[in-house]
Amino acid sequence: MSESSNIKPGMWARAADIAAQTPVERNRYVDLLRALSISAVVLGHWIIAAPGFVDGVRSLDHLLEIQPWSRWLTWVFQVMPVFFFVGGFSNGVSWDGAQKKGVRYSFWLESRLRRLLGPVIPLVILWAALGIVGYALAVPNQMIKIGSQISLVPVWFLSIYFIIVMLVPVTRALWRKLGLWSVSLPLCMAVIGDLVYFNTTHQWYGWFNYFFIWGAVHQLGYAWQQQRIGGTLPSFCLAVAAATCLVLLTQFGPYPISLIGVPGQEFSNTTPPKLPLIALGLTQIGLLLTFEKPMRRWLDKARVWTATVLINGFIMPIFLWHSTVMMLMIGLCFWLFPLVFTVVPGSGQWWSFRPVWVAVYFVVMMLCLPIFLWLEKKIGGGSSKHNTGIVVIVIGLGMCGGLAVLAGLGVAGKGMFGLNWLAICLPVVGTLALSLIGKKIVPNK
Torsion-angle region of residue 55: left (phi > 0), alpha (psi -120 to 50) or beta? Predict the structure, then answer.
């Protein structure tokens, strides 16, 4: 459902052809939720960016820092739990199918690695090139750091998600043995992680919650795929109970209201992830499953399902590149049209122009999308080589480490041209290594 080569006038017809071939047993709601969750992330990022001038100096401010009330909006736009939940459903289906066909773990994992991390490589290369150009033009290193960090923030979840994908054989085996009880193990570890984080000097342990919290949500995806959770009334009760916990945690606990990081805030619910994200995830899962039956009936309509297929065909490139488009547009306007930033961020006039800015970002994004798809195909595409499982794991972990650093710090560093070449090279060299050191795949005759 995610394959697309170019955006052409006949894309609706091609999407309709794919939609017509959809197996009856496919849960189309999974595809819709994937598209909606990523779209919400894109829209949220486009809204909260607040560029302007502070004492005559260009500034890239953050709406959540300027207007504290806007932090409540993160309860709507923080939808990463939905993505990991949907990922658990999809990975369960994919791994079970691979086992039935006798596909080795190394083949399965490498295909997932190329599909997840391959499309990121053109984005990393572009920002490395922009960093070099910025250095040559004497652009302040801090501006390169902020611009690239904001643009590369979307790749953080791919790093965590791939590691969770890497553990699918283990987590799937735990699911088969323990069922819903397999969710309790990472959940309990997450509780311990928060207790240690807030009550001891060993805050480093809290960083393991990246795997415990998102692993627990991913495990719930198995439960959905196996039809162990769902139903209108139980799901609604789950949503109410979880929402109550979320309110209690953020109002009476040590957790901030914002469910994404806020610059200058002492604690963040996301770095590392903390229990409010579990409460949010359970709230979202409960609400989404409450409406699953009517939504699946709606998706049986040909035009609705075709539109869903079409959007899923290029939703990931939009996710990866949307912040870069935004940052390049902001930089261009700072250079050519600085007067557009004279409106005070957070003012009524500023809010009245947000739909205009979002529309501009969207139009530019769609105009550039064929280029992004072409880059993804040429630079981040597949290969006819195959590597052993240990090679895929080692290379994948290296790529994830590089992407995590880039998502947190951007491309700026202390190396040549003011760049962090180790973080840049890890994902790029990893992709090359997969194609160079693997064995040629010989088709069966």
Answer: left
Assigned token pair, 349: 């006039």
Q: Give which of 407, 421, 428, 412 is closest to 152, Cα–Cα.
A: 407
With vertex at residue 262, the alpha carbon angle to CA 261 and CA 266, rounded to the nearest 5 degrees, is: 90
Answer with the residue of higher pLDDT: 54 or 122.
122
Distance CA 393, CA 68 (A): 42
164, two tokens = 């969770």
Radius of gyration of the chain measured on its C-alpha atoms: 22
* pLDDT tens digits, one per residue of 327-344: 999 989 988 888 888 888
Report how far apart the first and last C-alpha atoms of the chain are (Å, whole number): 28
Q: Residue 36 carries which side chain, given as an amino acid letter?
A: L
Phi, psi (5° rounding) for residue 386?
A: -135, 140
pTM comes to: 0.90
Residue 386: strand, helix, or coil:
strand
Rounded to 5 degrees, φ, ψ at 122 are -60, -35
